[in-house]
């Protein structure tokens, strides 16, 4: 989750939908901001917009996160090569498995 950024654009988050239709409205009210074909699409659009609230550049921040995850995975892999075989590496293996799904 992002820390609110004073210079981030304001899109009226959090968004919510009006039950019974497929128009997406900002929490501040007013006209529909987007239209979605179906409830799943609508809910995904709303979740994505709300998750990115406060980000100045969501695409850049998500790419930075992906890069950090890749670096962390490489670092854990490298560290495992230097650890004694007698050492319990189960935590490192669990962390690697979680990181692998994100890369």
Task: Give the strand order, joined by hyphens, for the main sheet.
Answer: 1-2-3
Order of helices and strands: EEEHHH
Count of extended strands:
3
Radius of gyration from the alpha-carbon trace, in angstroms: 20 Å
Query: Helix/strand-derived class?
Result: mainly alpha
Mean pLDDT: 77
What count of domains describes the coordinates? 2
Shape: elongated
Strand content: 5-15%
Tally of alpha and pi helices: 3
Biggest sheet architecture: 3 strands, antiparallel
Tell me the quaternary state.
Answer: single chain
Distance between the termini: 18 Å
Name the poorly predicted regions.
none
Question: What brief labels describe this structure?
Answer:
2 domains; mainly alpha; 49% helix; 3 strands; 7% strand; 103 residues; three-stranded antiparallel β-sheet; single chain
Task: Summarize the structure in words.
- With 103 residues, the protein is mainly alpha-helical.
- It has two domains: 1-56, no CATH class; 58-102.
- Helices cover 49% and strands 7% of the residues.
- It is built from three helices and three strands, in the order βββααα.
- The protein has helices at residues 39-51, 58-81, 90-102, and strands at residues 16-17, 23-25, 34-35.
- The chain has a three-stranded antiparallel sheet with strand order 1-2-3, covered by helices on one side.
- 4% of the residues are buried.
Summarize the structure.
It contains three helices and three strands; from the N terminus they run E-E-E-H-H-H. By secondary structure, the protein is mainly alpha-helical.
């Amino acid at each position: 989750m992002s820390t609110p950024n004073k210079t981030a654009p304001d899109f009226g988050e959090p968004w919510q939908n009006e039950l019974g239709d497929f128009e997406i409205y900002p929490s501040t009210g007013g006209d529909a901001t987007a239209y979605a074909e179906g409830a799943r699409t609508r809910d995904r659009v709303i979740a994505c917009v709300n998750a990115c609230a406060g980000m100045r550049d969501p695409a850049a921040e998500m790419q930075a996160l992906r890069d950090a995850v890749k670096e962390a995975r490489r670092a854990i892999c490298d560290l495992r090569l230097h650890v004694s075989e007698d050492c319990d590496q189960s935590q490192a293996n669990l962390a690697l498995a979680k990181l692998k799904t994100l890369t």
